[in-house]
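Standup notes, structure subgroup. Blocker cleared on the manganese (II) ion input:
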Amino acid sequence: MISIVIPTYNEVENIITLLKNLTFLVNDFQYEIIVVDDDSPDGTSDEVNKYMKFNKRIKLITRIGRSGLSSAIKEGLIFAQGKYLLVLDGDGQHHPSFILDMLQEIKKNRSDIVIGSRFLNTSKLEGLSKKRSLGSKIANKLARISLHRNYSKLTDYLSGCFCLERESNKKFIRKIEINGFKFLYELLSLSKGNLMVNEVPLIFKERKFGNSKLDIAIVWDFLISIIHNFTLRLLPRRAISFGLVGISGVFVQLFITSFLVEILLFNFYNALPFAVIIAATSNFLINNQVTFRSERLKNSALLIGLLKFLIVASLPVIANVGITTAFYKYISADTFIAQIAGIAIVYAWNYLASSSFVWRKTI
Ligand code: GDD
Ligand code: MN
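Run returned:
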């Protein structure tokens, strides 16, 4: 049996056409189609529900209070019964015609994963803008160098269309981190070169209705995943994101100080407090958009959050001096190492305290 998992969010105008095309194609197989919809405001679930009356092999999971592409795919796959599990987008961009190729390939070559690739010579890429195409190329390169070398011949690590053999993938699927967009990349990363992966070309069509959900926060998530992979998956993703935002704050502070001193002719001592507060505010706002996206604060909570963040960030200033001095005195007389030790501890404090006090998140 084949299980086809389709994640949807606001695809009311696309999903039924796709379901019709699909059922026509796989009619000769034993199959189930599982649509995983995050309670789309446009009524995607209702439409699918109506259509299910005509085809009992279509199932619908409407999720309330849970969201995200990887998490939807994971939930659908865990629910699925088939020996082969196929994932494809619900907007019709993955033209279903090559599904049979994928199934044939996975059976014939005993692959564990078959990827529908947008970037093989024989693939047809109609639906990617120049900008997206370039972004995909860079992301693919990063993915290739960060993954096991057994996977280095692949061409599309971020495809949203892939077919899995259930048994060999089961234990990895359970472990997939759900806060992301790149399910396939995660799967390849977790399996550490141990799966047999092949590709077939696909046609990536233009989206007919609605909009892509890929945004800057998703790109950021992907970069964090790459670094997470390089740290052997030891550092928590949020901690990496928090650290990178912290580094950006250093530049903001340096920039603001020199702007105030050089252009507005402030005295350095007067400029510094402004620069520090602006840098901390910028850290707070960026963390709110990316690191703590799922707990994002808005309106008055945003203001209160900022105040809490400034308090959290100001406490370790004293600790920083204390720790650095103690480290210098008792552990190492190297000023550089002593300062790094101070910074590392302050970073850990800021991360832990902000997680639980500002965004109230268990780490
Ligand atoms: N349930 C659920 N929850 N579904 C979602 C969510 C979500 O939060 N976000 C997106 N989807 C669904 C969309 O409704 C669509 O069916 C599919 O996932 C792909 O989303 P798009 O927003 O259309 O992605 P894209 O076309 O920009 O991106 C394509 O390329 C990426 C790699 O560059 C897709 O193929 C992605 O899967 C792929 O990773
Ligand atoms: Mn799409």
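Discussed briefly. The radius of gyration is 24 Å.
Next: hand off to the docking folks.
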